[in-house]
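Hey, quick one: can you model this chain's 3D structure?
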Amino acid sequence: MENTNHWDEFEYSKLKLLLNNEKVNSILSVGRGNKESDEQFPISVELHLTDYCNLKCEWCTDKILRNNKATLDIKVVEALFREFGVRGTGVTLEGGGEPTLYPQFREVTAIGEKYGVDMGLISNGTVDISDCADKLKWIRVSLDSSTREEYIGEKGIDCFDHVLENLKKISVARNPGKTFVGVGYVLTTRNQGNLLDLIKQLDTIGVDYIYLRPVEEAGDITPSLESLLDLRKRLAELTAKTRIRYMLTITDRVVDQNAGLPCIAHSLTSIIHANGEVALCEKRREDGIILGNLYEESFGEVWRSSYRKQISQKLRNPECQKGCSACRMTGFNILFNQLEKVHTGHFI
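Sure thing. Here's the predicted structure for all 348 residues.
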């Protein structure tokens, strides 16, 4: 089969909406003003199990959350997964802190499997979880460096070789047709020099893809658009000769404030913090919105609450997106805006 270079699962993420037509119609009804909010559960949720982390990434956007020093009760996790299993909501296990440091991490994956919840993991790779890799749809290890020296500079701790060894263990232990293994790479002006050599090494290890994105909210080390476009060209040339694929996000990172559109796509996902808070969005740094808390209500009660309806209506005003940083939901909002304007929807 011809190597198409890009990692299709992410590159064509908006096509996944075709698999969730009831959700799409519900969101469009909100955009057209036909109802107050989309009460269908999110397609996927980002779940923070703990705020504790064992690295010191200089550009980490979750430093404030780590101050909470919270860990989510396993009983809350089980109640949540029970709801998500019925509704078909996927769960990404990720930060505030490092999810694999959660004391009952393997129990979490077993509970997810019990209730039929699709799970993905974003990890720093310092903990070997190869024994439960097959319970996950995908695993992405945030490497963010190509050499031991770069790793120490970016993350403050000497773990580069250890993380690569854990990647090898995961790649060997998982079922290749069941669990995708990838590497996340936050691009700075300091960690691009040896990137192509790293990709060759990852290809040998058996990693399926590398997902690259520019650093956020650190303007002094953010790569220029010109350098990103040049990197994309070099990545395409390299991966034409390898099994490993790549994704490099550029467009979503150069459009901010939600392109001046209403934010109706916010209900595609949600974030649950380790202290039980259900947050609207990770990008609203200036106007963080907490919808409720799982220690007080179920997720369904939070999602269908009158307060969330108020917030949904608030976000229909494009002015409410001022201050939002670059966000992957912007691409979905652009698509929904285009769909709302289609006049010949019943024709192909």
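One thing worth noting: The longest helix spans residues 225-239.
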